[in-house]
Specification:
Layout: E1 17-20, E2 26-27, E3 34-36, H1 41-55, E4 61-62, E5 68-72, E6 84-88, E7 93-97, H2 100-113, E8 122-123, E9 126-130, E10 136-142, H3 150-161, E11 167-171, H4 187-192, H5 209-221, E12 225-232, H6 237-242, H7 271-287, E13 292-296, H8 305-315, H9 317-321, E14 325-329, E15 342-345, H10 355-360, E16 365-367, H11 370-373, H12 395-399, E17 415-422, H13 430-437, H14 440-449, H15 457-465, H16 468-474
Length: about 475
Amino acid sequence: MRATLRRLGDVIPLPVSVRPDAAANFHLSPTVSVSAVPAARDIAEQLAELLREATGHPVPVTGADGSIRVLLEGPDSGGGDEAYRIEIAPAEVTLAAATTRGLFAAVQTLRQLLPAAGQRAEIPGGTIEDRPRFAYRGTMLDLARHFFTPAEIRSYLDTVVRFKINYLHLHLTDDQGWRLEIPGWPRLTEISGGEGTGVDGAGGGFLTRREYADLVAYAEKRFVTIVPEIDLPGHVNAAQVAYPELTADGNPVTPRTDDEVGYSSLSADREETYAFVEDVIREVAALTPGEFLHIGGDEAFSTPPEDYRTFMSRVLPLPGKYGKRVIGWHEMAAVDLPPAAVPQYWRVEPADDGVARAASRGHQVIMSPADRSYLDMKYDKDSPLGLDWAGVVGVERSYDWDPADRLPGVGEESLLGVEAPLWSETLRSPADVQFMALPRLCAIAEIGWTPRGARDWQSFRARLATFGPRWTAEGLNFYRSPEIDWE
Ligand code: TNX
């Protein structure tokens, strides 16, 4: 049965504190308006647009005295720059935060409390106070195995920000394709970004520098940081197809559109390798205002361990040289890492890859274990899309774990955050992306935001159930998991 009014706590991720007041519901009358100081005007406009969509009312934005007020003040209790407070009373609604980033988070919460079609034109009364558990709450989209256009990437971004995801990692290069234009190396995209360069020959394409910059700006407006990944020294067949001088013997290699991994490698003892890599890292860093640059480092099965160490020792400092903090898949922790480097842990079975050692030396870690957080795993054995090398990952499985327990020696204080990667070998369309992400992305988003002690599977599944009719109304494709009693 569908409620006629949303409950104040029907929010994902669950806020730190929710105090409902059934006597304080706010009626969304035709005269509802939003006010904000100039510095928060942009946020107020975004909120007004959401209110217009939900109510059909005009919802003007003014400088003061709106019935919904967006305030840049407090909470100053050390909750970080994403902390916010929402007060919903019969006469007015207040959104307050110390930063526009916090206000944006508040708007995402309030958005989930707006009535869906057929529900009463009210916002449930009470107070919410909130701040995130982790600074990094990411998702990854693999553009290399299947390219998604800028419009499709923006649409995914629009979906994930609702759940307070604040990093979008773009896997830009792999064996099949190269998806970002690099000055001085035009054949990367001319040859390896063309038609037919995705898995099974579907989904070629690439981002021009301009498109990438526009995407970064679009994300920035939504307080999302783009994390570009150039996967090295393995996963480089597409680069070697474009530039045969990047192979060990200088001989041409053939394009590959199968989904094997681990067969390609840059050569650790050729200077051509490092000239190429430094050019690419410099250009990507120059195009990227965000803090991070991801250099891959995973599954370099055809790079001998000694060569891997040689390569990584030279390449790991390069993002820092160009002003970026380096992230790499956890394999890179086999090497002594430069200060501030962030290993991203993806393993299924806990194993000593050097990640705990890195944590003991003060490195922060991103947790994305494949058997819990990979959005490309099948939901169950009958899933039409996805892989299953890390097992099948149902909704409870994606929710009911904790990143601070995952790896001995990597506790709460060592975690930068969590990420839900979406590899695209089996995906062909934005509808496929939505189907794999919804609802599991919501689980990872809540793990990243909500205090550990406040998380509960039964509560999550009940809240998740309320999103079904909204997603249906919006035309979002989601997996109607039988684990959820969808409204
Ligand atoms: C492993 S885990 C990969 C990717 C694949 C993915 C498919 C990791 C860092 N690399 O190359 O696309 O599995 O699930």
